[in-house]
């Protein structure tokens, strides 16, 4: 069986994820396509991930792509998580993942309505959705609070898990808006605050054109394997949220080849992707919490030393801001109150690497300025550096 070493995997990551300086791009859309999808649970992560890979880092082209020409879109998709993908890829992600997520969101909410004593049902939900869409059409854009003020039904409260220990009373507005967004009938527009804010306004949208789910899953697997291969079946099932059988079917559809990885595991690559690649120039990167280069695999051993995990992850398995050197995670970073980045190396990387990291921190400071970014998921090292 053909073998691909951990060193080769790190070489591929630097070039394919646009982290080596010679691989950087001027296009936010090119960044999204290079890593397939950008984690968007934390709004700032999208900007930080893109700008780390741009030849000229700036907030403006990212905002233009998200809210101007809408060439980047947010979708609730893989693992029921919010991602940003290119508009060209969005129908594929919709068919392979987002459609199923939206269907589950609707079923779950309808069950909560049925369990509540108010007599609310599917017809009530459909009427509420139509009123919400009409109110949004009247306003062009609106916040959730503005929609609730305009639509009385959105101010309804229901009891979740009645009679159980977890019983709680909850408003329906967030649930209704989430379902409409998951189905592609509305989308997030500009936030109320700066680019770091997650308080979005909403605007109308058209659902994505139909794509056959099996073909869409194969296409998504092909793109993912090109960006993250070699990788294991477990990596693909974790990243997509698919079952093992679904992942295997998608890999078979694209003719993925088996390869041996360091440590003995069996990975998969595209059939045309067996040849070794030359190393790019040495590179350093400061990547944000939940960056795709840190979240693309369930087994990150080829780029993340096991001893670093405790400092860099929270209790739920979310990775914080990381410092990279030549394809490996060597430390973590945070910001002081004035926005200045501060970092700690967890690996001994030498003088040249330290100088490159210093230069990358300077590049970060130039475009971020005094903007202060606090990750949604705080990790031990990030908290310590901030303090």
From TrEMBL:
This is Winged helix DNA-binding domain-containing protein. It comes from Streptomyces pulveraceus. Keywords: DNA-binding. PANTHER family: LMO0824 PROTEIN, WINGED HELIX DNA-BINDING DOMAIN-CONTAINING PROTEIN. Pfam families: AlkZ-like. It comes from the Bacteria. GO terms for molecular function: DNA binding.
């Amino acid at each position: 069986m053909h073998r691909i070493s951990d060193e080769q995997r790190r070489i591929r990551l630097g070039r394919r994820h646009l982290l080596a300086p010679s691989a950087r791009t001027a296009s936010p859309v090119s960044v999204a396509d290079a890593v397939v999808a950008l984690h968007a649970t934390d709004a700032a992560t999208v900007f930080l991930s893109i700008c780390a890979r741009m030849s000229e880092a700036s907030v403006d082209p990212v905002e233009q792509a998200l809210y101007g020409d809408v060439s980047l879109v947010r979708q609730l998709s893989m693992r029921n998580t919010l991602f940003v993908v290119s508009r060209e890829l969005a129908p594929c992600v919709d068919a392979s993942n987002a459609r199923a997520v939206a269907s589950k969101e609707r079923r779950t909410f309808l069950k909560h309505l049925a369990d509540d004593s108010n007599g609310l049902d599917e017809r009530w939900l459909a009427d509420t959705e139509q009123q919400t869409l009409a109110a949004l059409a009247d306003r062009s854009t609106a916040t959730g609070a503005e929609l609730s003020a305009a639509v009385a039904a959105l101010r309804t409260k229901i009891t979740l898990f009645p009679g159980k220990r977890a019983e709680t009373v909850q408003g329906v507005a967030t649930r209704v808006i989430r379902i409409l967004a998951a189905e592609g009938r509305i989308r997030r527009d500009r936030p109320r605050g700066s680019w770091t804010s997650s308080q979005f306004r909403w605007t109308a949208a058209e659902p994505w054109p139909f794509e056959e789910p099996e073909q869409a899953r194969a296409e998504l697997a092909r793109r993912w394997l090109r960006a993250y291969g070699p990788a294991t079946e477990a990596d693909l099932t974790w990243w997509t949220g698919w079952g093992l059988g679904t992942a295997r079917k998608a890999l078979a559809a694209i003719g993925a080849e088996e390869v041996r990885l360091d440590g003995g595991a069996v990975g998969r690559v595209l059939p045309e992707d067996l040849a070794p690649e030359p190393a790019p120039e040495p590179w350093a990167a400061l990547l944000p919490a939940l960056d795709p280069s840190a979240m693309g695999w369930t087994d990150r051993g080829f780029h993340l030393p096991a001893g670093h995990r405790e400092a860099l992850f929270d209790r739920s398995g979310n990775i914080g801001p990381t410092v990279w050197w030549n394809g490996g995670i060597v430390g973590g970073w945070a910001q002081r109150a004035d926005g200045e980045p501060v970092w700690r190396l967890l690996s001994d990387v030498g003088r040249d690497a330290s100088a490159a990291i210093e230069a990358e921190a300077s590049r970060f400071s130039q475009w971020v300025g005094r903007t202060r970014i606090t990750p949604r998921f705080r990790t031990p090292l990030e908290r310590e550096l901030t303090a």
